[in-house]
Amino acid sequence: MQHGESGTLPSYQAAADWITGLVPFGIRPGLDRIEALMERLGNPHRRLKFIHVAGTNGKGSVCAYLSSVLFQSGYDVGTFTSPYITKFTNRFQYNGKDIKEEELLALANELKPHVEAIAETELGSPTMFEVSTALAILYFAKVTFPDYVVWETGLGGRLDVTNIVYPVISVITNVGHDHMDRLGDTLAKVAEEKAGIIKPGIPVVSAVTQPEVVDVIRRVAGEKRSTLYMLGEQFSETALEVREDEQEFRFQGMFRTIEPLRISLNGAHQRTNAAVAVMTLEVLRQYQALVVDDDALTEGLHKAAWPGRLEMVKRDPRILLDGAHNPEGAEMLVKALKETYKYDRLHVVMGMLENKNHRATFKHILPIVDTLILTEPDYRMKMEAQDLAAIVQELPGGKPFELVIEKDWKQALQTLQQVTGSSDLGVVTGTLYLIADARARLLYNSDSEKGW
């Protein structure tokens, strides 16, 4: 679609294609275009209560816990997340349900003339992510009117488009090695970007651990006079019982201790994510008159689901999906595989994008695999399987394993199912672009249009 081409979008598919067609404009940091867009629409974002969530890993899970508990407590909840796993509409949810295709079409048509007008100015065309963000704000401010919007950052924080909002509370899950090509080459620099969502006087809940990252978050919170609630200081969690698809833990906070809480998501990191969500709700309960009773809290946490994160999609043989696309994600995956799952042999399919820290990711995975099948996601920024294999072969050898190179991800999945015996475990991991397609195929769900 050319810049100057106006006219009404005829269908949902045309609307989704128009928005995703803005990808070539890339991710251009800065809030100028989204501010111009909001200004033209009458600043609808100022009428909404946002819970703003940033972090390298765990953002989606924290958003899932928050949305689930708020909904269980009788609140109307809007949720904006990225990237999506099955369909573009997944990104815009109201009370756990996707935006309807015709609503998305109507909002895209409302936005289109404004987007085209801004494209003609020196600001240039709004990007795909900017238009999606504007669409989410319109959907919540003009169509659904939720009590709270659970609002996930796209990338970074400070210059991320989502940072146009003034939230009731900010959350920074953790800081790790991801998008360093765009956010800075040290953890402290990445932390500085994430800390950009801290707004003057607005409380912050965080589970960051590395000393240099803690220093940055503490300093920025101090400068903004924001009260900081830090995991390990103002709140913590203790595991009570861990089994596959069910974990019990005790939450200890400044205001009270709550136990037992149950979650059905796997891995120790999910207890951390749940504790972050609980602390966020506790702060809102204490200072913003949020009403969440313990039954709703318990039920909401237990019901929270997040596809593609340690998700068992097949039982015979067992096939697990996990979107561990950076070193920290891989480390959490390996920890969960050791602590939660029992198996004789482990077979792993991996596909990754070019701009990731492949070496550090493999370092976690290689010591525990029996078979490693390298493949390629169906995505323009994919890393060639052959290039991944070269990296794997350079790494110092641990225990011997079988290396398979299979460019075709569908064939790689088939091979995985063939080599995984009844007492083994098969895992598909790496980029969410691969996870999305694998999930659709393994669950026979063909409606997959994965992506940003």
From TrEMBL:
It catalyses: (6S)-5,6,7,8-tetrahydrofolyl-(gamma-L-Glu)(n) + L-glutamate + ATP = (6S)-5,6,7,8-tetrahydrofolyl-(gamma-L-Glu)(n+1) + ADP + phosphate + H(+); 7,8-dihydropteroate + L-glutamate + ATP = 7,8-dihydrofolate + ADP + phosphate + H(+). Its cofactor is Mg(2+). Its EC number is 6.3.2.12, 6.3.2.17. Pathway: Cofactor biosynthesis; tetrahydrofolylpolyglutamate biosynthesis; Cofactor biosynthesis; tetrahydrofolate biosynthesis; 7,8-dihydrofolate from 2-amino-4-hydroxy-6-hydroxymethyl-7,8-dihydropteridine diphosphate and 4-aminobenzoate: step 2/2. Residues 308-430 form the Mur ligase C-terminal domain. The keyword Metal-binding applies. GO terms for molecular function: ATP binding; dihydrofolate synthase activity; metal ion binding; tetrahydrofolylpolyglutamate synthase activity. It is an enzyme of class 6 (ligase). InterPro entries: Folylpolyglutamate_synth, Folylpolyglutamate_synth_CS, Mur-like_cat_sf, Mur_ligase_C, Mur_ligase_C_dom_sf, Mur_ligase_cen. GO terms for biological process: folic acid biosynthetic process. Residues 53-280 form the Mur ligase central domain. Keywords: ATP-binding, Folate biosynthesis, Ligase, Magnesium, Metal-binding, Nucleotide-binding. It holds the Pfam family Mur_ligase_C. It comes from the Bacteria. One of its GO terms (cellular component) is cytoplasm. Belongs to the folylpolyglutamate synthase family. Monomer. This is Dihydrofolate synthase/folylpolyglutamate synthase. It comes from Paenibacillus pinisoli.
